[in-house]
Amino acid sequence: MARTSKFDQAQVHELLLQALETERGGIQVYNAAIRAAQNPDLRKEFEEYLEETTRHEEILTRVFEQLGMDTEEQSPGRMVVAHLGQSLVAAIEMAMQNAEPAAAELVAAECVVLAETKDHSNWELIGQVALKAKAEYADVLKQAYQSVEKDEDHHLYHTKGWARELWIQALGFPAVLPPPEEVRQVETAIGASRAEQSREDMLKRH
């Protein structure tokens, strides 16, 4: 039996604070990852995602303005998100200083996946609020969500593909680079699963 619960507006406020901080941290993570990238296709991909993440931060800033929220307001959750973002940047920089370039590139790819996992989750939740909340700000969130939804799916599934293939390459096995997710322009979880399943066929063709 489904449980009913009262809509928590304060938690929506917290979600938006964390989402804005995630985008800001993502900008820094991508700047570091671009410096670590060795594969030209991967570097180009990261540069495109940096541009899109910057746009997402601008979209959320406008949402804050429309809702009368302070973009610099802090909360314990937002502080944690900021710390995680800084830690991912520090991890990439540590790898660049201490590891071989290929290993640092792999660390960067994994850090991007971690950042994008949180980012994708934030926007999924914002989409849920926009769909289910009977509040005046639902339309504002819906417009923002629809503006970034496709980008967020693309970022997560493609960066996971890059990280997987870079690991496979590092293990000494044949890798598909760019990954199947990139080749097939995957935008959904189902598409990502099918792309991963197709990699052996792609290897045979090459």
UniProtKB/TrEMBL annotation:
Transmembrane segments: none annotated. It comes from the Bacteria. Coiled coil: none annotated. This is DUF892 family protein. The lineage of its organism: Bacteria, Pseudomonadati, Pseudomonadota, Gammaproteobacteria, Lysobacterales.
